[in-house]
Amino acid sequence: xxxxxxxxxxxxxxxxxxxxxxxxxxxxxxRTPDWAEKPAGSVVEDAEVRTGHQEGGDDDDWEIQSxxxxxxxxxxxxxxxxxxxQIVEKIES
Length: 93
Prior knowledge:
- By secondary structure, this protein is an alpha+beta fold.
- It has one domain.
- 25% of the residues lie in helices and 29% in strands.
- The protein is built from two helices and five strands, in the order βββαββα.
- Strands 1-2-5-4-3 form a five-stranded antiparallel β-sheet.
- The longest helix is centred in the C-terminal third of the chain and has 16 residues, at 77-92.
- The chain is globular.
């Protein structure tokens, strides 16, 4: 993974705050890897991490594209941002 990214945007949906770190259009593939469930869930239960792969990149070169934080597990957008950053920090450390 590359250096820890900054939050670009947060969208509140019905079920999740979608905390975006990188533009999905920058990737040719986006996945929600199973290995990210444990570190994400240790910060916020049922949180998900989406990773992206750039076309032509190394097969192992996946970067965090976004973190989905369940709306019912945090008080507001600010807490969703904080928890998403904690998840990214945990994964990239």
